[in-house]
Amino acid sequence: MMDNFLHVYIESTKVGILTARESGDYFFTYESSWITSLASIPLSLSLPLQEESFTPEISKAFFSNLLPEGQIRDYFASKNRVSADDDFGLLAVLGGDCAGALAFYPGSAEFTFEPGSVRYRQLNNDDMCKLLDEAYIMDPTFLDDEENTRLSLAGVQDKLPIAIRDGAIYLPLDGSPSTHILKPPNYRFPNLVENEAFCMTLAREMGLQVPDVSLLRVGEDDFFYLIERYDRNVDREGHLSRIHQEDFCQATGHSYRFKYEEGGGPGCRACFQVIDSCRTPLVDRIKLIDLVIFNYLICNADSHAKNISLLYDHGSNPSLAPFYDLVCTGIYPSLSSRLAMAIGGVYDSRDIDTKVWTCFTEQAGVASLKPVMATLNRMASEISRKAEEVAIVMTKNYGENEVYLQLVETITRRAEIALRQVENL
Q1: Which of 164, 194, 228 lies at the terminal end of a domain, its last residue?
Q2: How many domains does the chain have?
Q3: Based on C-alpha coordinates, what's the Rg of the chain?
Q4: What digits encode the pLDDT tens for the residues 269-282?
Q5: Torsion angle of the four alpha carbons 51, 52, 56, 61, in this order, in degrees rounded to the nearest 10
């Protein structure tokens, strides 16, 4: 059996090649021309520019993180007659538009990508309702035979990359770049899209850097969650291009299977060590501290390493990307309350006290506890009022929903606990 190849591109430039062996292993090798290019960047902190091929273990840790997880992965594997364990095969059928700037094209060892025109299919209201009514997953089954999508977004939540132009919604075809991500309601967790829109809006009000988000009404009672992609750029002529990014699992060389710290994934210390490689480490360290405290205050127990990313928007030294997937998991009794990433070595938020914040300060590489507690005090003092204001705006824009009051009450209780921690200092 001959080797199979996936050619890895950023826009129209080939950056490397994935080679699959008969054994099922695959490995990545940079193109020599990419290594010597003045415009070159590493695809990951775990994949530094080098002539030698990377081992299958290192290669898989990075590239597997570009694919969906769980039932969504199983669905697309079955649909495309590929094993759910076959990263290489899934990237071949889905890897046209991924998180970040990478696109994958199957072909012989001598393959050269020839850019064609980008293609989009405008979605009308009926199409949106059909997406909402898909029995299993948002998969555009209404497309014609010649309309093909090659779209891959990581994670366990159902989501769909789309493009928005002049207020109209389009589905990218043949791996054309998207501008936004669409998430449908999750019937296991009621009001999840409203929850995420609320928490992301609250994050912006609290000074965190987040993309623009909104709720998109479909039908009479349902909403999609809509988030603008920060890893895309539109120039003055309207040309859409991709910006490379990687999540903290990729940066630290961990498979998505190890995204939770208790399962062997990156913890706070490892994440703050990643910040040392950033273009502005001091600024990004403060931002990451703010994120940890904000997630604690909104009762988000699912902030794992795949929910934090780096953006390669100014050369080979990345910066901390805008934050995303901010949700109050505390309102769902069926979800674990144990933190995906421990704070100061503690997974149970009920055990967090001043001593724990002291330990967290050391993990974050900060010399003094004072600025961390000052940030906790400031955010805990402001967040209840800000949450009430966000609830008013959400109600005005999208109608009344009991979840907004539930979120305000949950966040307020946590803020009161945090303020007592500050008082005990």
Answers
A1: 228
A2: 3
A3: 22
A4: 999 999 999 999 99
A5: -40
